[in-house]
Structures are given as C-alpha cells and as structure tokens.
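So, could you explain the following?
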Amino acid sequence: MISARLTVNDEEREIAFRPSDTLLFVLRERLGLTGAKPGCLNGDCGACTVNVNGTAMKSCLMLAVEGMNQTIRTIEGLKDSPIQHAFIEHFAFQCGYCTPGFIMNINSLLKKHPNADDSTIKEFLSSNICRCTGYQEIEKAVKSLLKINREDKAGLPNDE
C-alpha cells in the first residue's frame, strides 16, 4: 500500500491504495464515490468516465497513482449541475446506469468545445454506450447546453 493525496471534487484526500489499483476502484471502494460505474472494465462502455484536469477519462483504465497531482471530478462533484437538469428536461436517460459517464463526458465537451457542431457531439457521445435509449434525447440535451454555454458558460466548475 502507498499513501497519497488525491484532489477529488475540489477536496484534497489522503488515501491508501495499492499501486496497481485503478482510479475507479479507489473512487468507489476507498472514497465511497459510487457515481462512476463499473461496466465493461476495459474502456469500451464509458460508465466509469470522470474528468481529470477537465478531460473525460475512463477511470477503469487509469491507475489511481496517475491521479496524483491532478484535478479529478466525479459525478458527485457536479451535483445539481445544468447538465443533470438538461438530462431530466430532455428525458436523456432511462435506467441511469450510464448517465453519470455521459454527464462527465458532456462536461468535458462543453469546456473544450463550447461551439461544438453535430459531428463533434457525435464523436464525444460515441465513447459512451447506452443500451436502454437512443442517443437522440442525449443530443438534444447537449445542444440545449451548448446554447446556454454560449450565453453564460453554463455555470460549470473549472477543472483546468
């Protein structure tokens, strides 16, 4: 075990973990942040997506030690965010298992591409899989957020 500091959701946390532990495991099992979900555990589904320095990352593929000296944001750090409200407003979820990963991916999209076109939106959404619903509602939610983002930066936290 090693002891290290991770900055998660604007809070510095001292945590012990094995050098081989994934960020997903440490977030869920050591910090109790269960919003990032274990899905495929090989980077295909995106259910485990978190933001690291503002970039969407699959936490099942990232070692926790790689998160040292980085700014990590999980779905818990976006509580009551405009993205969550847009998902509700546009019925962009069904079972909800994949929703945190989509929201974290969209958070990164809004910051990196505030004027994203349809092609960029589809590219970002392609890194996450939803088996319950079509992506049409999710795209509508993203487009509504891009409009808000252009007007007032959507009130999203700054992780860069």
Remarks:
- The longest strand covers residues 2-8.
- The CA atoms of residues 6 and 13 lie 5 Å apart.
- Helices lie at 23-30, 82-89, 99-112, 118-125, 136-152.
- The chain has a mean pLDDT of 92.
